[in-house]
Specification:
Blueprint lengths: L2 E5 L2 E3 L5 E8 L6 E8 L6 E6 L5 E3 L7 E6 L4 E6 L8 E9 L2 E7 L3 E5 L2
Parallel strand pairs: 2-11
Antiparallel strand pairs: 1-3, 3-8, 4-5, 4-9, 5-6, 7-8, 9-10, 9-11
């Protein structure tokens, strides 16, 4: 139903910024709630934030005020703007799509690496 492709990761110094993209290859973009997750080596995967078709967002406490999720309906892309990056933000970042009409249906992208280091 949907394929997800993340991009935009890279190496950045503390305090820097990156914008990650999640391109959704689907015929009905509005069907999906998009979430961003991250997983650092040796750590559990954690939810970064989510965005609904209507643009409603929520964020983990660790990223509130620094990260912003937005949704481009025309191009079927969800962005994760990462600002004021900290070394603790280093992780593989994944996007996830969950069917709003069928909550058991979900898909994952391959991930994009974000490394924050001086």
């Amino acid at each position: 139903q949907v394929q997800l492709v993340e991009s935009g990761g890279g190496l950045v110094q503390p305090g820097g910024s990156l914008r990650l993209s999640c391109a959704a290859y689907t015929s009905i973009f509005s069907l999906w709630i998009i979430g961003w997750y991250r997983q650092a080596p040796g750590k559990q995967r954690e939810l970064v934030g989510t965005i609904t078709d209507g643009g409603g967002t929520n964020y983990a406490d660790s990223v509130k005020g620094r990260f912003t999720i937005s949704r481009d309906h025309a191009n079927k892309v969800v962005y994760l703007q990462l600002n004021s990056l900290k070394p603790e933000d280093t992780a593989l970042y994944y996007c996830n799509a969950r069917n709003v009409r069928r909550i058991s249906e979900e898909y994952w992208g391959q991930g994009t690496q974000v490394t924050v280091s001086s």
